[in-house]
Amino acid sequence: MEDTLISRRCLFTLLFIAFLCTCGRAQHTILQNETADRELRAVWMATVLNIDYPQNPTPSAATLQADFKSQLYRLRQAGMNAIFVQVRPAGDAIYPSSLAPWSEWLTGVQGKAPVSDFDPLAYMIKTAHAQGIELHAWVNPYRVAMTMDSLDKAPNHLLNTHPEWVRAYNGRRYLDPGLPEVRAHLGEVIDELISNYDLDGIHFDDYFYPYPAAGQPFPDRETFARYRRSQQLADWRRGNVNTFIAETHRRIKAKKPWIHFGISPYGVWRNQSQDPVRGSATRASVSSYDDLYGDALHWANNGTVDYLLPQLYWSMNYAPAGYKVLADWWAANTPASVALYTGHAAYKVGTDPADPDAWNTLEELPNQVAYNRNLPAVSGSVFFSSKSILLNPFGLAQRMADVYPAPALLPERIAPSPVTMRKVKVYKPKRTEKGMLLVWEVDKKLPKEEVPYYYAVYRSGGGTPTTLLHITPYGQGCHRLHYYDTTADAAVSYDYAVVPLDRYHRALSGNLQASVR
């Protein structure tokens, strides 16, 4: 990547929610709009080579905090509601780990910790959640080093602790996916992350076996000879990746089933020339299935991922591999039980000489988002990358803010248990100098862990449709909350609704309270 579900709410739940509300008709309208306002709007935030974060390596906790906080604020202004942060770029980590050294791209020297015992990942999660934004940990499982230089690696880097696991290929170093010891180690990496951090997701990108270099076979023949059984090389490699993905999914769901686990494969699974029955009508020079040994359809059809996020890094009508052709293909081939999002090439806006008619304009990405919204199977978008939106000289950040003028809830996710309804008492709104004050509460006897994870505040009135006005911070654990509507017009009478939601973004109940003119 650096180189280059719609979940169905059952009718019973909707009817039950409406039944619990004090104003059934108005609340039903609000919930219909609330469902329509669900969409993943996210960015990848790459740490490798300091693509996005930090802008410059530093051990300063204050500088690292300010850098992330600034990007988070501007991304929120651009309409984003989730961030995929690269926490394991190349056998290293941007968090304290017993399994890897501190990343050189974080502090400037591999193995050097930030000052004052600062934990960047813990800070990122806390800061994002306070803004009602999800944070997903993006892991590159197999990459060990971006260069062949071994002298700059910390003593506890895999190149020094387990050189027998590492393979050199095309100027970089990778773990051998066929080794059982590698899979066991990567399982420990995932366990450490989900045990120590309040993450919303674990994410892998398109890097499994490396992108092929002409005339250079990946050096795993000895591993293949030892573990092949009766398989052909390509099937064996795909089997290694499939096993790792399935094991990762089991680990996550056993400990924290709400964590959203998924993968962003290369955008072309297979061309029709490679698979006339299932392939896409594309002419890509690389395919995920044949060259990277990543079989996304296998993961989806076997339920070992919660979502797929194919990287559709081409313009709408690009002849060899058009965005529309591929979005349609993924929508048709991803089972309904698996969420589908699409990855967009924000880095190409204003910078792609190979397809200038499409990318030398601010309209390509808005057109792709609009196309997604007409595909019921697609639940949102992720853009590569943070810097490409925030620092685009043509004003891409403002253009995305126009595309996302109001906040959106994240799509509802599949949960292992039925929804537990929660009644919300909403007090009569009060006009104050700060704005319209809205106060609500849930049963004070509820244990903290049973309190709704967050709330969505809706407003209607003055001839305007019901809109999502505010999303509270995640995981506050409070029984009584308040919100100031600073945009309320004193001459208008409004209706407000407060909808509680759980960690799976499922609505738990709702209530409506009218203001006084």
Break the fold down into its secondary structure elements and pairings.
Blueprint: H1 11-20, H2 24-36, E1 40-45, H3 61-77, E2 82-88, H4 104-107, H5 120-130, E3 134-139, E4 143-145, H6 158-161, E5 166-169, E6 172-175, H7 180-196, E7 201-204, H8 221-227, H9 233-255, E8 260-263, H10 288-292, H11 296-301, E9 307-308, H12 323-333, E10 339-344, H13 356-359, H14 364-373, E11 378-384, H15 386-390, H16 396-403, E12 425-426, E13 430-432, E14 435-441, E15 454-461, E16 464-471, E17 480-485, E18 494-501, E19 511-514
Parallel strand pairs: 1-2, 1-11, 2-3, 3-7, 7-8, 8-9, 9-10, 10-11
Antiparallel strand pairs: 4-6, 5-6, 12-14, 13-14, 14-17, 15-16, 15-18, 18-19
Helix pairs in contact: 1-2, 3-5, 7-9
Describe the structure.
This protein has 517 residues and is an alpha/beta fold. The chain has 2 domains: 39-403, Glycosidases (TIM Barrel); 425-514, Sandwich (Immunoglobulin-like), CATH 2.60.40.10. Helices cover 30% and strands 19% of the residues. The protein has 16 helices and 19 strands. An 8-stranded parallel barrel has the order 1-2-3-7-8-9-10-11, surrounded by 4 helices. Strands 12, 13, 14 and 17 form a 4-stranded antiparallel sheet that branches. A hairpin with a 2-residue loop joins strand 15 and strand 16 (464-471). Residues 5-36 and 512-517 have low confidence and may be disordered. This is Family 10 glycosylhydrolase.
